[in-house]
Design brief:
The structure is a homotetramer of 369-residue chains. Chain A is α+β, with helices and mostly antiparallel strands and 369 residues long. Chain A has three domains: 118 residues, Four Helix Bundle (Hemerythrin (Met), subunit A), CATH 1.20.120; 92 residues, Helix Hairpins (Orthogonal Bundle), CATH 1.10.287; 120 residues, Jelly Rolls, CATH 2.60.120. Chain A is 62% helix and 10% strand. In chain A, the strands form two sheets. A four-stranded antiparallel sheet of chain A has the order 1-8-3-6. Chains in contact: A-B, A-C, A-D, B-C, B-D, C-D. Chains A and B meet through helix 8, helix 9, helix 10 and helix 12 of A and helix 2, helix 7, helix 9, helix 10 and helix 13 of B.
Chain lengths: 369, 369, 369, 369
């Protein structure tokens, strides 16, 4: 659904307020950023600075426009203040205003356009899974901060020690603690530029200790994040599946405890229209329940449509390894995926479900003979 | 609550003995460390060495003072020996004595003040979550030490091999095993300064092996810490929640097995006074129990106060996604947080709790109509 | 089973279509790659370019041949299209055609042979465990992409900032944003070549931030992958064990819930013929069930053969720590391994299994007296 | 228990065969390695080469001696072949023979002694927790090998690509694929020496991709190892605790299922004699069961001895936070540690255990009044 060349304003306004990023906004961000980069490459700039300038201005106009429409929309729904102080609002404002303000303040043109770097931030609020990342960082903020305190303590003490040990031999590299901190941060993060290196034996011993601490800090950091992620993934999956599961009539007969149980076994996926889920002849090891949307089964000679609450792909779990038909979504569809592993567990715990699936599978097999 | 300019001694004494770090101590540490850094920056030192010197002396006096008061306080409670040998006691002593002793021993003034680097250690005992870090390191010390032994073995053998292969070609860089060890540690930690690099083909082959070992050591290290952290996080959370849960009357009716069960689902958070927990109109996915403290619900036209044992935010879990009122703490409050996921599990396992929450939610909805 | 020197074509065809890589294909890939490398080493090339050329041609002929046979075989089974668009098909085609096309297009001989680098890709489809890796990447693609977006955002903003701060001082290193990106990527991945280094104090501050972000990105990345792997390992193990377990008569008496339970405790291993599983006198802490294949127990004076469904090694779990006989596979055998830990759990949950194993162990002990 | 200066041979033989490393062996390894390092430092060597030589010879004689005794001891117990092919046997042989053989073969004295680097390997078999590491590597060998294949593939293709792109501009650095491989390995492991750096824009793009792949490989590696470690830690802990638990009469009344359950909650620790486990007045959050050995409780006015099967420290879990007495081991003791978390769970599941502990705690409280 790319925007028509001379797209009408009202349509653009609808598109731009409803979602975080319209397709045209992605185009504008990409184009603006590329132009901004080219602006700094002298030979390219010399050859085509008019085109670059024009495109940059076009992008800027787009962002100003988008920002104004969003502001008006937010005001219309009485949430202007909330929009303005939200991350998205601040980024939109910075994208629209930073460059003009810089130009107005008399900053040179090529420097001013560098403020277009804020444009790239517009992509962030739309990133799937970033909320999950943020939650992990919040929940684990305690241990992460402890590691940061350790990191900074080691950093500072290493810098002081190296300053003491090296500043006479290398007054230009270790001549002050800030200079030594530069060495320390490059060493403790195991970046190791090598532009500044201790030369005295004691200085090298301290440096070796710092490098090993670097590994340790790294390990702690990762260990904490891994722990947080495991918990968050489980939580996120549950939240997304819960609602979908309770909508599937197949599971509705189960009590709430069983539904909670089932939810933990299912994974939710969202698919766009016209996506092939199952391809005939391929091996399969999971079955699907339709939480919302619709799929089309391409049987020999006829097409069968399955709607909300139906399931398919169960053959693969009942002994027939190869998929027997192509199955494609007809519109945006949310599926619940049940892996073979979890299918076994589910069937073992809820034998009545097993019977329902079995009966349905037999019915289909007969029908499609 | 910053200290009044000429704060009375007794008040300072009370503040300094009760907690690890008073606010004034944080100020002193920050100020002292910044001055110490500036001391080593020649142009700054030349311009304002009197100010720097005065501030350093002020910080030192503060630390000496603090140490003496803590010593007297510890002696008063009969725990002087315990304080002196504790990490905090040693750091306090080093912060107070290192610089004066160095000055007395005739060390140059600018070098002596470098010993102020111990001041930064005063921050460590107060870091939340550091106890948790230490426990992980203790519990996992076995495997971590094994990895360290592997690390040192690879380090040493790599250094000997490179010394053998390279010392004729590069007598200045690989002229002795200690010199080769310097290369080895920078390589095995993947720091890679590049100041010393093997040049012979065989030497480079060995170096490639060392780098890959470096990745391996890193991975082992992290894997161990991640495992330890997962266990420790679960444990720490349980410990903090257990006591709080048993104080909430809502859960008191449950047997001990159910309480243990509930405790594993709840997360504890401590909030200062006047913190907004829930903001009207925001989306919510958890409910709260008050373990201690008090919150104020800002309903249209009236303010309702909820005390220990009450719960709030349950609407979000019962279908109403948007928070319907601002809720703020009135004093230091400990809350138990119940996520939507865990709410479902809890309700499924303990249907009587579900009824209580449901009844209360209906009552409130009626009342606030 | 290395190919006989002048191996008949039909036999080769059978071998090459059945499996991903015949032993001769491994030889060809290794030989081709080594020759390709030697081609670029001038002294070696000068000395023996005829040998190298001949071997390269031989390898190429082999790959062309293999590709044609596979194409014909795929056509014969009606799956030519599927083969051609599969990863394996594309790699086979590239291996066979890239070099000849380059030579035909007039590329110099030494450059054209560099396209032999595609040969190394032939090894990939045959790597065990790669499917597991791919599944982790797919399941965790959401969070991984978020981290990538964060990574790229930090990368870009760091490059713009450094370009702004450094391009006047170092026009050759930071003269354009692409040049600054080169610095940024080496820094954010903590590679740290050190060929380009910021020199201004502000530039170094930004760089320090970038390095610390590098650690953070690394930690997130690893945390996500670790979480995904834990889930995938459990799933993969279940899938491989499930089928095998249900074939063992010993477990057949259990209901489906118990089988699912048992499956989670067992690990599957596949062994070639004539592998010694248990060595007399060694300590043991697991027992084995034979899912398929056959083993030979080397008792004093006689040899006992155990077939599908039998178990052995149970003595180690019933108090006798040292293995009492050598046990060797006689043909390709799939075993289910039960660790001591899981043995205890299993026996506790299914006392009837415990009795069966106990009775069998007593019978054997009597018999072998 | 350091060896007496002129220790009798028989005593030494007993010591050296029973354990992996006697204390004197640790001394010999340390001394030998330090001397070996000093041998390569020219000024030190010039000053004291006689002392160094003498000590090296002494260490060598020690290792030869140790090896011979172990060989004879192994022969005496009929396990000579097993000893010779074991890792320990090979290391012992290499430690004893490498240097003399090199000297006999006419290698220069300073080079020959470098073979003393094998001495350091003698420490490895005695490292606690290394068996655990090895098991993780074996169990996860499948995915680890896949990652290695990916690593090598990326390495090779990157080297070929950079050779193609850079060898004309930098014939000395990228003049052959082996030279490019040197760059590739330093980049892919994120070591980044910076001695060889691509200069063309395309070369830098490839290099950026390689660095990001480096992060990915690292993450996969770590994720796999973390997963393996979590499983292994659980397993190892169970194995060590199982036997100990079943010896404690307190748990003997429980059925096997409950014992398996209890075992998963306990952690085993081994303590040497005269170690203080609990210090009066300290805060405590776990209780202990004595699996083997003995402890002494230092009550006011008397000392109480607790033997195998007894428990202590339960007060801390029953409300009294501060330990009320010093408790010290009297000989080597194995304890089972029960954390507060797990105590709650255990008590909830097994109320009879709770009563026993409660009754005993009351009895003790009365007695010690």
């Amino acid at each position: 659904m790319s925007q028509p060349p001379g797209f009408p304003l009202s349509e653009f306004a609808t598109a731009t307020t409803g979602r975080n990023m319209t397709r045209s906004a992605y185009v504008a961000v990409t184009c603006g950023v590329v132009m901004m980069v080219l602006l700094t490459v002298d030979p390219v700039y010399a050859a085509m600075h008019e085109v670059i300038g024009a495109l940059l201005w076009a992008c800027l106009v787009f962002f100003v426009f988008e920002w104004l429409i969003r502001l008006r929309h937010a005001a219309g729904t009485g949430r202007r203040a909330a929009y303005i102080v939200s991350f998205r609002g601040i980024v939109d404002a910075a994208s629209a205003l930073a460059v003009p303000i810089a130009l107005a303040a008399g900053v040179g043109s090529r420097s001013a356009w560098l403020l277009g770097m804020f444009w790239v931030l517009k992509v962030i609020p739309g990133t799937r899974g970033l909320r999950q990342l943020r939650r992990v960082l919040v929940v684990e903020s305690g241990p992460l901060l402890s590691v940061l305190v350790l990191f900074l303590t080691v950093l500072f003490m290493a810098a002081v020690a190296e300053f003491f040990l090296e500043h006479e031999l290398q007054p230009s590299s270790f001549g002050s603690i800030p200079a030594a901190l530069w060495w320390a941060v490059a060493t403790l993060t195991t970046t190791g530029y090598g532009d500044v290196v201790p030369l005295t034996p004691l200085g090298r011993l301290v440096a070796a200790g710092v490098m090993i601490c670097g590994l340790g800090v790294f390990g702690l950091w990762t260990g904490i994040l891994a722990t947080g992620f495991a918990a968050e993934t489980r939580r996120d999956n549950f939240l997304r599946s819960w609602e979908a599961v309770s909508k599937v009539p197949f599971f509705a007969s189960l009590g709430p405890a069983a539904i909670a149980d089932v939810t933990q076994l299912l994974r939710t996926i969202d698919l766009p229209a016209r996506t092939t889920i199952i391809r005939k002849g391929h091996a399969g090891d999971c079955m699907y329940f339709i939480a919302s949307g619709e799929v089309e089964v391409d049987l020999p000679g006829k097409k069968v449509v399955l709607g909300e609450g139906a399931f398919f792909g169960e053959m693969a779990l009942l002994g027939n390894n190869l998929r027997s038909a192509d199955i494609t979504t007809t519109r945006v569809t949310r599926l619940l995926v049940l892996d073979l592993v979890d299918f076994r567990l589910l069937m073992a715990r809820h034998p009545d479900l097993a019977e329902t699936i079995d009966a349905e599978a037999r019915r289909r097999a007969l029908e499609n003979k």
